[in-house]
Design brief:
Elements lengths: L22 H51 L7 H14 L4 E5 L5 E4 L17 E7 L2 E9 L5 E7 H37 L1 H11 L16 H53 L3 H26 L10 E4 H6 L4 H5 L3 E6 L3 E4 L1 H18 L5 E8 L5 E7 L30 H12 L2 E6 L6 E7 L3
Parallel strand pairs: 7-9
Antiparallel strand pairs: 1-2, 1-5, 3-4, 4-5, 6-8, 9-10, 10-12, 11-12
Length: 461
């Protein structure tokens, strides 16, 4: 990846979250789904237990009622008042309504209570005593029959619908507190899951705040065991990556150092051969140009190796731009008749002096190298609206097509057709220096709508 591109992948507060499933949401749905399922099962069990328990109580009341009906029916003077007495006294005492009949052996109803159906609940009196569920008048009744010594049968019944209404009232009374507890459970579960998953968010924030220069182990205070395994694996990966980068930097630096010395010696020997043997000059001149290009490539590789990501903070100080420009080697510009202009609205900038000098030298050399004879090169500085300094180097040379400007910071990329030698590393060095300073690098048109302009926007120091 290009040195200036890594910042666009860093997480920011205003950036939308990546698409994908949420662990927090799934945990909450799982907890609430399991709780609601268990709540419904528990409610069904409670209702079932309550149904059987209340049914036993009601059946006992029916059985007791049938015994009382037989006792009252045996008295000749209690023909009409006995039923009301049973209904009034027993019903108010037991808080439930029971309907009774005294049925003759032939199926005639001899006596019945108020609001009791006229037809016998169980018309076949020869049926054995006990409980039965019968349909009378389109309604389901629970009936208990008891036979007297005289052959009459006492039948005491209760509508099943009344039992269901009582059970429904009980379920309704249980449902609202249970629903309130479910809402409370959801809120508590959401808060607990959010609290327990906070180490993941904190760890993601620590990782997102890292720069490419920082490959030190990621430390999270008191992480859970599940997160610690991930951190161990990530820290091991960072350690291996740090070793690989160090090896690459050492290899690049060592190779460049080893190659620089024999190339310098080889160039000296070419000059000696040219002087002693007096051979045709154009062959040896081309050989010297090739050696100079190899030497420049090695110097660029050394510069890039020194600019590779480092964990230390970049030391900065106030740099005077006018004095910095005076240190540049302008002999190539004078040889081509180029004019170096200065438009320094901001005289100083906060930066690392050596790195800023390297960046400015590469930019000016690049402008001089590709500029036409008698052209212009201008170094500009201006304040930015939000603070910071804009540093730009512009020329009026042939420039670079707009479609190829995005690739100018890539290593070894060169625009074809310029006819100029080079290794394509100068702007890569500038891009790396800009990244180390946190500056934004962009390419635009140069002077008078021609050439190339390289702009560096440095943040406030």
């Amino acid at each position: 990846m290009k040195p200036r591109d890594w910042r666009q992948w860093r997480p920011r507060a205003g950036r939308p979250r990546a698409a994908g499933w949420s662990l927090r949401r799934r945990l909450l749905l799982m907890v609430m789904g399991t709780s609601i399922t268990l709540w419904l099962v528990s409610l069904a069990i409670v209702i079932g237990v309550a149904w059987f328990a209340t049914s036993d109580v009601f059946d006992d009341a029916l059985e007791e009622g049938s015994r009382l009906v037989l006792q009252l029916g045996s008295e000749a003077d209690a023909h009409a008042s006995a039923g009301r007495g049973l209904h009034d006294r027993r019903g108010e005492e037991m808080k439930l309504r029971m309907y009774y009949q005294i049925v003759a052996p032939d199926g005639r109803v001899l006596l019945r209570g108020e609001d009791t159906p006229e037809a016998a609940f169980v018309p076949r009196v020869e049926r054995s005593e006990g409980f039965a569920n019968v349909w009378v008048g389109g309604e389901l009744w629970r009936v208990h029959t008891r036979r007297s010594d005289g052959g009459n049968t006492a039948q005491v019944a209760q509508p099943v619908e009344e039992r269901l209404e009582l059970l429904g009232d009980m379920a309704e009374n249980l449902a609202w507190p249970a629903l309130a507890l479910l809402v409370l459970l959801g809120l508590v579960s959401w808060w607990q899951i959010r609290r327990l998953l906070r180490p993941l968010e904190d760890t993601a924030g620590r990782i997102g705040a890292r720069t490419p220069q920082d490959l030190s182990p990621i430390a999270v205070p008191d992480p859970p065991r599940e997160l610690q395994t991930i951190l161990d694996a990530l820290n091991a990966l960072l350690a291996r990556l740090g070793v690989a980068l160090d090896s690459e930097r050492r290899f690049t630096s060592d190779a460049a150092h080893e190659l620089r010395t024999p190339l310098a010696a080889l160039r000296m020997r070419v000059q000696l051969i040219e002087r002693e043997l007096k051979l045709p000059g154009h062959h040896l001149q081309q050989l010297r140009a090739d050696l100079d290009r190899c030497t420049a490539l090695i110097e660029s590789l050394l510069a890039l190796a020194r600019l590779e990501p480092q964990a230390e903070a970049l030391p900065r100080e106030t740099v005077a731009l006018e004095a910095l420009i005076d240190t540049l080697d302008l002999a190539p510009a004078h040889a081509k008749g180029l004019q170096l202009e200065r438009a320094l609205a901001v005289p100083t900038i906060e930066a690392a002096p050596a790195l800023l000098a390297s960046a400015l030298r590469n930019l000016v050399d690049n402008a001089v190298h590709y500029g036409g004879p008698g052209g212009r090169v201008r170094v500009e500085s201006a304040p930015l609206p939000g603070g910071g300094v804009r540093l730009a180097v512009r020329d009026d040379g042939p420039g670079v097509p707009a479609g190829q400007r995005a690739r100018l910071g890539e290593r070894f990329f060169r625009v074809l057709g310029t006819g100029q030698p080079g290794n394509g590393l100068g702007l890569s060095i500038v891009a790396r220096i800009a990244a180390l300073h946190g500056a934004a690098l962009r390419f635009e048109s140069g002077l008078d709508g021609r050439g190339l302009g390289v702009v560096l926007d440095f943040p406030p120091g």
